[in-house]
Amino acid sequence: MLYDLIEPYNSISIIGMCKNAGKTTVLNGLIGASNGRNELIGLTSIGRDGERSDLVTNTKKPEIHVREGTLFATAEQVISLGSVSREILDVTDMSTPMGNIVLLRAMSDGFIQLAGPSMTVQLREIRNELLEFGAERVFLDGALSRKSLAMPSVSSAAILCSGASYSPDVERTAADTAYCARLMSLEKTKLDFTNAESKFLVMEAGQTVETAEFCNAVDELRRRKADALFMRGGVTDAMVRMLLSAGKFHGAVELVVEDSSRLLISKQNFDKLMLAGAHFSVITQTRLIAVTINPFSAYGKHYDKNCFYDAVRRQIPDAVEVIDILEDSEC
Amino acid sequence: MLNTKQLNSIGFTYIIGMAEPCSPYGAELARRPRFYLPSDYDELQAEFSRITALIRMLGERTDKFERVERILMQFKDVRRSIERTKLFTLSDVELFEFKRFLLLMERLAPAYADLMNGEKLAGISIKSFTAALDIIDPDGMRSMTFRVSDRFSDELASIRSEHRRLDIALRTASAEDKERISIEITTLAAREENEEAIVRTQMTKGLSKYADEILMSVAIIGKLDFAMAKSRLCVRQNGIIPNVLPYGDSIGFSEMRNPFIEAALREKGKAFTPITIDLRPGSTVITGANMGGKSVTAKTLALNVMLGLSGFPVFASDASLVCLGDVELLSEDREDAMSGLSSFGGEMVSFNEMITKSRSYNYLVLLDEFARGTNPHEGAALVRAAVKYFNDHDNNFALITTHFDDVAKYANKHYQVMGLKTADTEMLRHALAANGAERTGVLESFMNYGIFEVPKAVNPPRDAITICMALGIDDEFMKLIEI
Lengths: 331, 483
Fold this sequence. Notes:
The structure holds two protein chains of two kinds. By secondary structure, chain A is an alpha/beta fold. Chain A is 26% helix and 29% strand. In chain A, the strands form five sheets. A nine-stranded mixed β-sheet of chain A has the order 6-7-5-2-10-1-11-19-20, sandwiched between helices. A five-stranded mixed β-sheet of chain A has the order 13-12-14-16-18. In chain A, helix 4 (170-184) runs parallel beside helix 8 and helix 6 runs parallel beside helix 7 (267-275). The model of chain A has no long low-confidence stretch (mean pLDDT 85). Chain B has two domains: 4-129 and 210-233, MutS, DNA mismatch repair protein, Chain A, domain 3 (Orthogonal Bundle), CATH 1.10.1420.10; 240-479, Rossmann fold. Chain B has 19 helices and ten strands. Chain B has helices at 4-10, 12-18, 24-31, 41-60, 62-73, 79-84, 92-116, 130-136, 154-172, 175-208, 211-236, 259-267, 294-309, 343-358, 376-392, 425-432, 442-446, 464-470, 475-479, and strands spanning 243-245, 251-256, 275-279, 282-287, 318-322, 326-330, 363-368, 397-401, 413-419, 448-453. Chain B has a six-stranded mixed β-sheet, with helices on both faces. Chain B has a four-stranded mixed β-sheet with strand order 1-5-2-3, covered by helices on one side. In chain B, helix 3 (24-31) packs across helix 11, helix 4 (41-60) crosses helix 11 and helix 9 (154-172) packs antiparallel against helix 10. Chain B is elongated and about 110 Å long. Chains A and B meet through strand 6 and strand 7 of A and helix 7, helix 9 and helix 10 of B.
């Protein structure tokens, strides 16, 4: 099921809402499905993953199992922690606390540990190198709350993993997951900002005003009947408070950001802006293809799987699939 | 020796930064350029002969020159791994990098031979290490990847084939067989790891025999790369190779430039006025108007002497130099605040250190507006004393800029900044008759930044008030000036 969804994309990020959300289970499922179709796959992660027991919560967790031929990028010092026989393809200049990132080819089946680069630019470079070495599909394993992984520059599609380990309260988990999913499936803007030079740009009936200061942008927004505000870089709660305190918008205002990972704002503030008549859109869209759910908690408070499924399904866009990782045979 | 701040201000750091070696070995040499002392004269000449030959190659065989550069770019710093072969077993990542280095050497050697076409560069010979490469790549595949070969270990070969068989069996095994096979594989993987370590140890031991020779090659690659980068710099920035003598009685430059100041001027749409100067042992004095370019002359001379004696091209149409023990510059850039002395006190303490040292070596000493921080009467006396001192100790070359009177007459040579001397006085007066702000910019159109040699008795021009006028200083204030 999940494999059919990823089929059109050559690079897929897997992002977790929390530790033990079932990321590695999903990854192993996808690896298995790709192997079954004789695809040559490439793997890397942002940060570290694939340990036998979780370094944070000390719970047993699945390891990443690959087939002979698989390409992967990991830090020098964790190479020997895997069990595959390997060939070294390249040693990059990207350094991490665990040594430089090395590109390898598995020369046998077995387990590997992933500890990839921590910067988006580097991750993109690694992805491209894996594709150049012949990988037909690259999976990017995201570490805890590294939602930047979903940035479109790094992968063409994303899967969001949520699970009972996030919070003992099923409703809260579902709501926060839905909020994340909602951010990741924001509409692509129809407006053109390719010529924007400053950090902020206010648009009114095709006319534009640019400014480097957010307070000036807010002033402009209040004074005019602006249609849209483009914000380069991160959008924070402090900025949203300024927007809200500036008074009521004259009409529906489109707030445009580069991509959804730039939105660093709380759900409450997001909702308040919606109520005030604003809506967000992005320049480059993340294609969130599925949300996976894991009703099993590493801390003991498991959810009822149907209840969890319904709670998540009810709140996220219809275009996004919801998949229970314990149910889906390939995951 | 000039400190970092001074090297920045004269433009030395800027020029060095423009030489862009391709390999980490060349880059390391460029980070700390060596100052060639009189005892290193032969090495300095060898470096210049390499750069001269490479400049010619760059012009005549550009594509071959660039091919060598492209290979150099791929080198990484593997010196640590090479050193480690003597004591430790290299990891597979280290062996990968070692192999890559040796493969690049195999490409560099013929590319270099092709570039040189039978000629030789002093002290540079590039050879490949085929025997060492055979140790690390016994199958002779010469691919850019690395895996511990099982060619010399039957044990490793049999473990690997068994591992492979079990992998395939595991893929289709039933649940209960899976457990058993997995355990077998784990044991095999551990044995493979062990056996690989044995092979790696043998490889490392074999490679260690070549370690010293390879390290020497690395140093030579660095030298070649650095010389190539300098030859590129020379062509790009219109430099020349100076004529350096081990000892002699002249430091002379014709139409000398300072690309650092030149670049800053170009941004403002102005041009740099080339400087021709000839220093003899003892004191040379430069006098002239404020803002006329005395300090620029001192900095430009310091830059080109430092470059020439560091084995770099210099910027002039003609340059002759002698080897020196050191170059010292005493100017406003000196940091005195740290020592708790006033600027005058700091200057004098530094000056004292300088003359103490200069007794034992031959120096180039540059004193920019020496003793400007004290009263003109005693200040002039101090500068006169400095001029006399360096005339007495004429193993040194001293360049002293000042606008105090009666200094130059004690010097061996006297240069003066043209300043406003050549300006049409009528036109200048007309231009200065305008009001405050309208006068700004007048200076640039009338000032001549060139220098020329004048008789020793000529005193500095009195241009300070004219210059204030030209700077557009407030009229109310200007009217209060009484002379």
